[in-house]
Amino acid sequence: xxxxxxxxxxxxxxxxxxxxxxxxxxxxxxxxxxxxxxxxxxxxxxxxxxxxxxxxxxxxxxxxxxxxxxxxxxxxxxxxxxxxxxxxxxxxxxxxxxxxxxxxxxxxxxxxxxxxxxxxxxxxxxxxxxxxxxxxxxxxxxxxxxxxxxxxxxxxxxxxxxxxxxxxxxxxxxxxxxxxxxxxxxxxxxxxxxxxxxxxxxxxxxxxxxxxxxxxxxxxxxxxxxxxxxxxxxxxxxxxxxxxxxxxxxxxxxxxxxxxxxxxxxxxxxxxxxxxxxxxxxxxxxxxxxxxxxxxxxxxxxxxxxxxxxxxxxxxxxxxxxxxxxxxxxxxxxxxxxxxxxxxxxxxxxxxxxxxxxxxxxxxxxxxxxxxxxxxxxxxxxxxxxxxxxxxxxxxxxxxxxxxxxxxxxxxxxxxxxx
Length: 419
Hints:
outer membrane lipoprotein receptor (LolB), chain A; 13-stranded mixed beta sheet; 21% helix; globular
């Protein structure tokens, strides 16, 4: 079906710009926890979206709507209660890391006291393959996401001030409180098409084309198709398609295809959804008998005590690694180069020598192995290694800087040369 209307200019207001800046800052703060090579996995999973190619059943006949009207409909959507099943498929084109993936996730879990139930350690699992999730929400204080596995289940539950993570396979529990950790959403893993659609739409600016391209039916509900495309060249993002529920304005499906073509990088959507109030018991949780319980707040306080300022060799206070001196340094401690879809985040790790060294199992040097996964590059900046996926690419230079973005290798090298 032909597009209803093209609306390349979304008329962003100054308030919209400030909101986008805040969103980008938060996204980069999350990205800081996953510096390459984990950045290649974690950033893509945490900032872009995930899911499945679901067959649409027919093109329902709906009233015409403009792109701006559909964006407004999403923004005004106030669905507080829902439950359903989401299928997520992700194809970032990552190499087979064998047992290293588990080791990296175990390392990430150290921030939660080494618990396999720590939500942070689960992000990398959603960065590849196909997953089935059950989701439920009842207002801002009650949400639940369960990742269904073969013979096991991982659940993340937010109920009031409590945040629980439970891994049935290991019978381990992770617990923290929203009051102590700041915000419950710090522990939440994006799981629904709306999570991902919100991230994309807050970033829409004059570098973006937005159109309505027909209708679809997803999970038995009539929907409009909203298509978001970068106007810029050099980005790895080809197009993003969002199926928006015609009645509630809730995104039902999110599909991101790369500029290189081929299958979707991430494709997520409901296979079943209900907007009825979930049972109160859905959000109840008591640690099972014999389960190992890790209090995340206590584990995190020690880490937070070490953050912030340090001392240099002269004994003077210095800012934490990652601070920049450019005038466009944002609140998160990143320099941000470029604009829109060509934005590149720059982090100075303060660690010389390029690809980080370490051990996945307590012995041996990983630098050679990790280096073999990337492409060596050189330029005015010196030498470095580029780690590539079908979406997020990252350059680690030998002087300790990391350049990350949804851009091609040439753009990263150019940014490093300019920096």
